[in-house]
Amino acid sequence: MTLLNLSNRESRLFFLTLAVIAAWSAEAFILKPVAMKWKGLDDQITADTLKLEKSERLIRRRSPITNDYDKAAASLKMAGSPEEEMAKFLTDIESLANTTGVHIHEIKPLPVKKFNLYRKFYADLELEGDMAQISNFMGKVQSSPDVLVIDKLSLNPKTGTNLLRCGIVISKLAIL
Question: What number does CATH give the domain 78-175?
């Protein structure tokens, strides 16, 4: 007598069914999760390898990067009191305007914004010049070693001439 009074054919079918169920269960509950975990770990290794290579490149470039940082920090560092820094900022703007041929009608210092580690100085200017002079002035402001930023700009044509009136707000960042 065989298992549960099954015929020879039925018992073979029963064991084949058990084998198929066991194979499917092993694949679904063991092989697939292990393969997914393996793939996840492989992806993590690839990502970590890329991060490591990037870090190694940065370490090799450490000296030039720290030199550049020191130069930038020195140019952004406040030289004196906020009043002295504002005066220097306005003088720098005036000298940029003089070198480009732009005529300043009015220059007003705006209130300094104080943050934890830095201060931001603002100046509101009314300029007049032709398009080439104003664009040259804006280029010099953007490329200034003092890291000046144009925050607001308005251009209006001056009637009867080829000159433009320009309202511009320029800011400067200074580290404490």
Answer: 3.30.70.60
